[in-house]
Fold this sequence. Notes:
5 helices, 0% strand
Amino acid sequence: GYAGCQHDGLTWSIYVCCIFFVSELTLRVHVERKQFVFGPEAFWNMFDTLAIASSVAHLAAARGDPSRQKPWLLNYSVARFLRAVRLLQWLQLPWLERVTRSARVITMTTIRSLPALFWALALLAAIIYTF
């Protein structure tokens, strides 16, 4: 039924992402050579390597079915999330920077307006209580 199709689609998407990340890492190792280990991005490169290796190990331990969990294999969802964040940082999309800048401005404006909002509500409560 539908659940089987959804499961198959999820499995294939996990394989495609894993193949993409392994290919991207292989290409970076080939292009950067020594800079991959000793360059300014060495920490992130090692993090990427460990995150990708954990994904490959998870698929290998599950024997092709990513939904099968092994009790001895840790869940690396946090590492995968950080890997996705790292990928977005690596892409440095201009529209993403504009969106995050706008979100930061909105957040800071809201936070800085909270004291004024508190006093306005206090004044309104005093007026309602008086009448």
